[in-house]
Amino acid sequence: IQNAVDEIEAAGRNGTLYIPECSINFTGTVHIGGGVNIIGAGRGKTKLYAAYGKSLFSVSTIHYGGAGLPTRISGIAFYNNHPREGRSGFAIQLRNCTDYRIDHCYFKGEYTYGISISGNPFLYHGVIDNCEIDFSNPGSYGISMSGDDETWASDVRDVYGSENFIFIEDCVFSGPHHSTKSGAGAHYVLRHSTVTHSNGHPV
To answer: Which of 79, 116, 135, 159 is 20 to 30 A from 104, alpha carbon to alpha carbon?
Structure first.
């Protein structure tokens, strides 16, 4: 997968990697820049398993380029079957990503974060929809979002109705300590979603 991502980036980005029905045991983390889409065959068909203590996808325009280009991850199941001491930091990490979409994915196992997002919400924002996060770890977070502290000084009423939010829609959360967690001035909207069996704070 990493080799295919590297080829898309070398060819100018704005490309899509399709992963067929399969089960893959990872040995490390896939590093992805902006402008790369990764599409599976469906969350019940494309199954990716994290390595011990490792995360799966790290998407960052800071480290891997592609600033300002959209990214989509869809139709994949992310698993971590390791015991708690070998849990992964995240299934998907997004850093300073613009107009991203994560949809129709499934997250299961001992992750600290299902999806971790960071960056100024006035510049970096997107949509997470039709995903299911099913965690057994009481110290886990379904979706964790962090701004850059500067946005604390902004009046959020000035951005109501704008695109400057992370939109979480039509998702199901079961088991995480926090289904959604935000800090450092992150903006998000949670709607049309279901939270069950929370091990701490539902939101």
So the answer is: 159
Entry pTM: 0.92
List, for residues 142-164, the tens digit of each pLDDT value: 899 988 776 665 666 777 777 88
